[in-house]
Task: inverse folding
């Protein structure tokens, strides 16, 4: 099953090999034609651990497929990455999400908006322009936009990554390193980059269920200590249980995200959800 499926009513998607080959072709051609119109964005709350306040949201793309239902990103983004379609998709997402955040702010609900940027787009010339256009058109204050990049996408070409991040930082947008702990990148290189946030991959919390919880706690605390020293903020991903929440609080993480704290949900549902949960 695709990860992340089910909870926010994303359909399970487990094709056989032959189906998978057909699916890739279908995705590639559909994404070229009408699929961008069928993409939807769900938003998952990012919560401050000290106050419980909602700091912002992460935008997670889904495809409202006319026959197959709501598909998770894993079902189509890797194909989009190969064909290059991920670039127009992210360009659309940057527009959609910055406009959404600007509209929420105008309604008295300012939320920091995190958007995932694929490796392919990060290494493309257009990213800087796409971000600039989205900010200009939406009027969103740049520090309300966070671009999430994986360790692997910055590690591919550290020199270029640094130049690219320096330009993006000069606009005032924030940069987060996503899925930290899964990429095995050089820490020295990673932390030389102008990043503002480290998102600690949920595999660390999953590991806690197998290993001694104390060990995971120590690893988490060490990572958080490192972020403090570097003056960047930390987000724990995949907080699913009260035990996870206790561990990330104890380790001193600034922020957290996970099913326990809030599922990804459609834009229309978010303001009401925040009012209900944080009244
Ligand atoms: P990610 O950036 O690490 O996003 C977090 C994923 O974890 C999301 O899966 C989210 O629904 C899921 N999640 C949230 N809380 C929990 C939890 O408590 N437990 C578990 N097990 N999972 C949780 P989703 O939406 O299926 O997205 C999967 C991946 O697809 C994302 O991982 C990201 O790498 C990529 N992705 C999603 N949206 C976009 C996008 O707009 N652009 C790009 N380039 N990539 C995207
Ligand atoms: Ca992410
Ligand atoms: Ca992540
Ligand atoms: Ca991930």
Result:
């Amino acid at each position: 099953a695709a990860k992340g499926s089910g909870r926010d009513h994303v359909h399970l998607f487990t094709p056989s090999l032959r189906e998978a080959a057909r699916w890739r072709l279908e995705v590639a051609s559909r994404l070229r034609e009408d699929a961008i119109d069928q993409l939807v964005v769900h938003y998952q709350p990012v919560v401050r651990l000290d106050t419980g306040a909602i700091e912002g949201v992460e935008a997670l793309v889904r495809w409202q497929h006319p026959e197959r239902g709501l598909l998770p990103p894993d079902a189509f983004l890797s194909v989009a990455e190969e064909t290059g379609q991920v670039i127009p998709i992210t360009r659309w997402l940057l527009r959609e999400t910055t406009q959404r955040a600007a509209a929420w702010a105008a309604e008295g609900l300012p939320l920091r908006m995190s958007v995932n940027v694929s490796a392919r787009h990060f290494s493309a010339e257009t990213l800087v322009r796409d971000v600039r256009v989205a900010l200009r058109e939406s009027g969103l204050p740049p520090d309300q936009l966070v671009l999430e990049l994986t360790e692997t996408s910055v590690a591919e070409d550290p020199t270029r990554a640094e130049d690219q991040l320096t330009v993006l930082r000069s606009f005032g947008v924030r940069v987060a390193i996503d899925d930290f702990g899964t990429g095995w990148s050089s820490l020295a290189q990673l932390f030389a980059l102008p990043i503002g946030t480290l998102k600690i991959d949920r595999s660390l919390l999953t590991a806690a269920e197998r290993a001694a919880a104390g060990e995971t706690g120590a690893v988490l605390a060490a990572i958080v200590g490192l972020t403090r020293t570097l003056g960047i903020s930390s987000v724990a991903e995949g907080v699913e249980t009260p035990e996870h929440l206790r561990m990330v609080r104890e380790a001193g993480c600034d922020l957290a995200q996970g099913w326990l704290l809030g599922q990804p949900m459609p834009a229309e549902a978010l303001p009401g959800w925040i009012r209900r949960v944080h009244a």
